[in-house]
## 1
Amino acid sequence: METATSDEQVVERALSGEPEAFSEIVRRWERRIFALSFGMLGREEDARDATQETFLAAFRNLRGFRGEAKVSSWLHRIAVNQCITRQRRAKVRGETALEDEAEKNAAVFAMPSDASPARTVESLERSVAVKRAVSSLPPDLRQVVVMKEFEELTFQEISEALELPLSTVKSRLYTALRQLQMRLQKFGGPAR
Amino acid sequence: MKESNERPVCHRADDLVTYLYNEATETEARDFANHAAACDACRAELVVFRQVHESISVWRNEALGSTFSPEPVPLPVTRDVGLPTVPPRRRLSALDALREFFAVSPLWLRGATAFAALLLSVLAVLAVSRLWNKPAPLANQPTTNAYSQEEFEAAVAKEVKLQMELLKSKSTSTEGPTLTAKPAEKNRPTQLAENRTQTKTRPRGLTRQEREQLASDLRLIYRDDDDLPFVFSEEPNQ
């Protein structure tokens, strides 16, 4: 993202007490963090909560940001941690399967009326399968898949955000795609 | 097959994902395409990975909407679209400030200000006119009050006569009033004649300043006491 003022400069302004500076950080990164959170968690409501918590945590720990890392890396790290924490709580409560079923039922009613029932069910099942497959990936692989598919970042940007070598990012994505392919086969999904 | 991070089958896994997501350069893409044509593993994985990628995209578009973009929301630009904006504060000149003051002030205040200004103007005019029209010294008085030489001599003569009469009246006060009256009666026609002749030229009345000035002039003219037709005693009452 090329901006006239870099993220680091905006953070400096926020640290110096400028009230609108952190709002600029939120404006720049809100949609990306939301996309990341949605990819990690699979639900819009959870993604919104995780996004808000990400920026709240970033604001609280603003003084701890020493500029050694990029702002994008810092925010991504916070967001991923928030998502992982949420997923653990959900697993503990056993809510995941029920949420999937509830979402599928809700999506059935939301489908356009001109869609055929068979296609509707197939589409929904495919989406649920993909979502479950992505959610079951290890966090480090899931993070790369989500950043690539949901945030639409380039490999170079993912490398900078995660502070990983470019080859490592590509290797992780390759591995994630292979595992997704196997999971989707396991769930009866489209990737055969 | 293990689900952990195992090594890809083909050693060109990085190039595969770069090619898959269209981030390869033209040269790199041509090179990998040639490789995939010869490598079954890469060709098969390319097909499978495209399906996974498409499935994820479908899920993403259904969940977030096909128009969703992770790019930041642009800042609202109001200046370029002609929306009314608060104009920058301009520095008012004194005249503009006065105009604005009168525009917002009530009617009575405007009237009071105008009256005060008028009064001030009148006072200023009066003050200036007094400065221009200050009384001139006696020597520069208008000619109506200036004496000609003849008038001056006549006035002096008259004054001298008057003084003489006074002296005589005082000296003959024991003899009776007749003596004093006679000169008055004797000289009366003369005096009347003189008064007639002087009527035209005699000034209407001498002011105090004029009398004082005349007296001082008289003293200046008769510098030598011997020239005086009479002698003033220092103590006339004696």
## 2
Amino acid sequence: MILDVKKITKKYNKLVAVNDISLQLEENEILGLLGPNGAGKSTFINMILGLTKVDSGTIEIFEKKLNRIIKKKIGYVPQDIAVCNELNAYDNVMFFGKLYGLRGDKLKESVKKAMEFTGLWERRKESPKKYSGGMKRRLNIACAIVHEPQLLIMDEPTVGVDPQSRNNILETIKKLNESGTTVIYTSHYMEEIEEICTKVAIIDNGELIIEGTSDSIKNEVLTEKLVRLQLEDEIEKSIELINDIEGVISLSISGDTVTIKSKKEIDNLAIIIEKLVKANIKIISINIEQPTLEAAFLSLTGKTLRD
Amino acid sequence: MNIIDIAYYTIKRVLKDRKSNIVKIFVPIIAIIILGAALKGSFEVSSMDIIEVGYLNLDEGSTGDTVIEMLKETESINKLIHLVEVSSIEEAEEMVINDKISSFIVLDKYFTKKAQSEEKNAIKIYSSEYSDYRLTVVQNIMDSYANIYNTSVAVIGVTKNPVEFDTTEVVKTNSISIDGKKPKAIDYYAVTILVLTLLSGAAYGCELVGEDYIDVMGKRIRSTPVNPIHQYAGKMIGACLSNFIQGLVMVLFTNYILDVNWGSSLLPIIGFTFLASMFATAMGAMFCILFGDINRAGALTNLLVPIFTFIAGGYIKIDFGNIKYLSPSQWAHTAFFNTIYDGDKNLVLMSVLMLFGGTLILSTISIIAARRRSI
């Protein structure tokens, strides 16, 4: 097991930042930590990294308590870009390589590998000041992976970057994971979590609300499904026809579109279409809304991630 | 090994900032040139007035009269002091208080007897508690005279013959600089501005050490396997050396280009420059760690350094009495000036100990505070 967190709690005076959280992470997983601002994600990460004292509970990484040897196996990408603007990109990565104990040819090779991996090798001599936001983020990652960590902790690594750079960063994470790196990843962006994470943990008000795969969470949390029908005319008539069908919970109209909320376990779409066709109501389009983590999050916490 | 790495990259970061370095080195040099030229007149040596000195001869024999007569008749002494007879110690004290005489000398009633029996004998000098350079002049004359007097007594004791000595050489004027250069305004301001610049280097300690303990960079470094003490030491060494390098450039530039007098050897000057850099860096780092805020610590440093400089006479030579010894600038000034002008070695040693001890105390406080902040 890479990470074994047992009942950890952290309080700041009366504020409980992290409350009795337990979490396990197996090798080669990508854990997505989801939660709104102030949920306790950063405190949780800081406790894993040994930057914040744990009030109660235990944390074991690689089946041991955190020490300097264990720290060599961990890479950390902070949310803010933490590089020296006075040094060029190469020296920045070199500096962190040395802090992790790399020396000589091994250091040079590792720096080159990390910079090539993040697509910065060609522009290694430039100051980070001259880099775009996305390139700075990639340099932030290069500094964290230069020592080829077994566990990489990334705190919102895509904040403020353009879609192309974001895709680039996500691809980098996938490649790192394929090469054997276990990743803990926090983000505000559900689609990122859904795209790359093999396991998701939702934290709110310092508590772990749910954990599992993206699909298992959606299945467990979401009890309803949505179908949107765009109709040519006779909207009122269609409402009367659909309202009595088994499983339908509610209906709403917006322009020429009827939104049907039904119980997830009852498959009633075929019946709905059949009734409308028989009544000569022309259907222009059918949109079946897939369950999302966003919806699951909303259902669990009563708020969106950006609240 | 991490200490060296952190120190190396700290220096590299500072030296890469060329614009800032040029400003930090050449603005003080320009200040030295301007102050040296503008206040040149204040440092020119003017002739000294003749010093009024009282004397009270209580000697029951004749040697006392001879001594006073010789003092009065020695031309080189007469150029410096004028002897005024007083009738009692009380009268002499009153005259000193009223500034009619700067000091007075007393020959006791056994002066002749002591001279004949080769007993230790001395001319006692009394002065005000707040005496100035005039007392030093009188003391030096009396010491010189006593040496000659004692020598002649010793020669008489051995040869039984009277001895003559050349009274014209009793007083000889020498420059106070050991290499023969007379102090100029630029020499004074080179020292005071150098010390001001070095102490202003507290900002390095504040910013560079502070970012490791407060900023996100520090958080990131603490997540690495680096020992926090190594992290602190590496940053301190880097910040200190960065400050020192700038001071060294100032010393070398003023020495070789502006012909500033740094004494007979640059080695002790470079040593004091390093010591002052260490102290300043430790001070800045301590403020930052105690406050937990780079800006507040920087503001305090910017406030304190000019105050230290002012009370040590770094801008204008004003004597603040004993208060000045609270200023690290004063410690550094004392070390520099007493070395350049071959002054009191004990004062140099004391100043070095103050700077070194201060650095140790400030660093210890920083390390304890830093440990309490971290887990």
